[in-house]
Amino acid sequence: RYALINLRSLAEDKNIDLDIFREQELYDFEFGLSQNRGEILIDNNEENDDPFKIAKGETLALLVGINNYDNFKRLNNPISDVEKIGHVLSSKYNFKTIFLKDANLDTLESTFHRIQKEYTFEEGSQFLFYFAGHGTISSMTQQTSLIMKDTYEKDDGRLKEHFDASILKSTIRNIMSTRTFVIVDACHSRE
To answer: Which H/E stretch holds residue 60?
Structure first.
């Protein structure tokens, strides 16, 4: 039902043709976000009466890029990576895309909740989750976690406000697309 793919930075992929980028009509999707919680935009290429319906052959992509962290080293490329990938997916392949930039844990969880509650996935539809940013493997559980903008480490070494891979797996299972793809482009150094 889903695939987990680990990739290096796709923005450096020589096969991505940057000339195909074009201005897209962007819809500001109000989630009641403050400036420090991330930015959500939907790229809707099709004239569709119901932008929350993912029809057969269509794909909804949730693209998360985090450059700026409250408690970890800043990264330079994740937001640029998701923007470039998002433009290729929406302009060349007509994906419907949601971008999260410098999102905290609450923003990611709220977005998944909204996707589960507000989107209708028809038979033959697809969902893609792409994350670019810091990641880590817990020394205690050996589980992978995505580090969000507001993730922090307690004195005993435990992480708080992170997105655990097991939660990602169960969250993805509750999105009713026919096929689901997960791409994680995360270093595990936390430096």
So the answer is: strand 59-65
Render 131-186 in DSSP notation, one character per residue. EEEEEEE-TTT--EEEPPTT-EE-TTS-EES-EEHHHHHHHHHTS--SEEEEEEEE
Measured CA to CA, the distance from residue 62 to residue 136 in angstroms comes to: 21
Report pTM: 0.76
Tokens coding 165: 């891979």
Of 105, 110, 97, the closest CA to residue 46 belongs to 97
Task: Give the residues across from 53 on adjacent strands.
Answer: 120
Other Cβ atoms less than 10 A from the Cβ of 179: the count is 14
Mean pLDDT score of the chain, rounded to an integer? Answer: 77
> What is the mean predicted confidence (pLDDT) over 63-83?
95
CB atoms within 10 A of CB 3: 10
**How large is the average pLDDT for residues 142-148?**
89
Mean pLDDT of 147-151: 95
User: pLDDT tens, 172-191?
Assistant: 999 999 999 999 999 876 55
Question: Which of 2, 124, 1 lies closest to 57, judged by CA?
Answer: 124
Provide the 10 A C-beta neighbour count for residue 151. Answer: 24
Question: What residue type is 90 in one-letter code?
Answer: S
- Consecutive H or E run containing 100: strand 96-101
d(CA 137, CA 135): 7
